[in-house]
Design brief:
alpha+beta, Zincin-like, three-stranded mixed sheet, about 45% helix
Length: about 130
């Protein structure tokens, strides 16, 4: 899949996020890379394969002084999606790449909102249209 189509799927997935997720998204950048660097993968997925990563300050831990009470001076939080890892994971598992992109994005947006791995697991990724 080419990178433009990958971003189209991301755009569609954002539109289909549950309202309680989508309406909270502000000042976030979604970056697609082929694979994470070795340090990142070792830190966040030792012995595994990293599909996505949220970096930033989750909404639930931001204080009232965050970016001078408005987000205009804060750098964007970031969600990384790793295209080659997602593609390889889907080939190995037989999962749909489109569905896995959507699920990974949902998961990383959940971290942006302050949800833990356990809370995300308990949500059991719900289908988005």
């Amino acid at each position: 899949m080419n990178r433009d189509r990958f971003y189209e799927i991301i755009d569609e997935a954002i539109k289909d996020l549950p309202d309680e997720f989508r309406t909270e998204i502000n000042n976030i950048e979604i970056i697609v890379e082929d694979v994470p660097d070795k340090e990142t993968e070792a830190k966040f997925a030792p012995g595994g394969m990293l599909l996505g990563l949220y970096t930033g300050i989750p909404l639930t831990v931001r204080g009232t002084g965050y970016a001078l009470n408005n987000y205009s001076f804060a750098p964007p939080d970031r969600i990384f999606l790793y295209q080659k890892n997602l593609d390889r994971y889907c080939r190995d598992s037989g999962k749909s790449l489109v569905n896995q992109i959507r699920e990974t994005l949902f998961h990383e947006v959940g971290h942006y909102l302050g949800l833990s791995e356990e809370e995300l697991h308990n949500l059991k990724y719900r289908s988005m249209k």
